[in-house]
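To: structure desk
From: M.T.
Subject: fold request, one chain
Message: Could you run this one when you get a chance? Sequence is below, nothing fancy, just the single chain.
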Amino acid sequence: MRRSAELQPEIYPLPALRKPWFKRNTIVCGEGWSVQYSGSSWRVDRYDYFENGRQIVFSGEGAAGQMDIFLYPHLAWEDSPDKNVDELTRQRVLHNITAALQWAGFSVGFFPMSNPTTH
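Reply: Done. Structure tokens follow.
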């Protein structure tokens, strides 16, 4: 059973995005960031956001044209897990993920989670 997620409004205009032929399930933006998604692996998908040599890992569920991404209250870069990103960075990251996945043809929802788990 799929959880109910908060669907994101359609982003327009979309940034300059592309899918490199040599990187499956990767969307690259000319503004210096990218998103990779794993596809299903034992019911939980993995979403990796990259920006300026840093990475944030998300998990979620994707099916039938919609990606539901689990969103914890505290968001941190993988190289600084104890330091939460500021609100502007959080908004930019979520906006970029939404733009990339919408560009790839998916609806995007963020499912608020209260207790973080290991990804």
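Reply (cont.): The helical segments are 87-103. Let me know if you need anything else for the meeting.
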